[in-house]
Amino acid sequence: MSPQTEKQKMLAGELYVASDPELQQDMAQCADWLVRYNNRQASLSERLGAAGENACIRPPFHCDYGYNIFMGDNVFLNFNCIILDVVPVRIGSGTQIGPGVQILAADHPRDPALRQKMLESGRPVTIGENVWIGGGAIILPGITIGDHAIIGAGSVVTHDVASGTTVAGNPARILHRTLPP
């Protein structure tokens, strides 16, 4: 088996070197697209892995690569959202995301020796359908948020959130559970 490229390692969620020339080129292309998108001169479908019907991201918007972001129909992201998409970030149909939300799929080794080598990794983030994420919330790497959940403004989501559950706080804690509609 031939050695994996840094991009292949990144996409697999393995440790990789972010300063790899291929990844730097991908990020530069994404930065060019972001400038055009944030100035309303480019479309979501031009760069994202998928952008469903009526998907909307209000600029300014920031991401690493774009091609790892998959949004269903009628997804809405308000101003100043950040998605670190080194691995897939999936956002289900009908989900509404407030301003300043950070969805962070990028991760770093806990071992200081590995961090010193400038290695990074990623863990996919999945957000279900009809989820509401309040402004300023932070979703950490590897999190799954179930359908119909609510994430309170300013919350830091450190654990998966079950369908129909409302969480808030830092770290986010369960406030209420309901049966999904």
Automatic annotation (TrEMBL):
Query: Annotated Gene Ontology MF terms?
Result: acetyltransferase activity; O-acyltransferase activity
Check the record and name the InterPro entries matching this protein. Hexapep, Hexapep_transf_CS, Hexapeptide_acetyltransf, Mac_dom, Trimer_LpxA-like_sf
Quote the Pfam families the UniProt record gives.
Hexapep, Mac
Q: Does the keyword Lipid biosynthesis apply?
A: no
Instruction: Indicate the segments forming the Maltose/galactoside acetyltransferase domain, all copies.
Output: 7-53
Identify the domain of life.
Bacteria
| Any Gene Ontology CC annotation | cytosol
User: Which terms are listed as keywords in the entry?
Assistant: Acyltransferase, Nodulation, Repeat, Transferase
* CDD domains xref list: LbH_MAT_GAT
**UniProt family annotation:** Belongs to the transferase hexapeptide repeat family.
- The protein depicted here goes by the name Nodulation protein L
Annotated source species: Gluconobacter roseus NBRC 3990
| Gene name as annotated | nodL
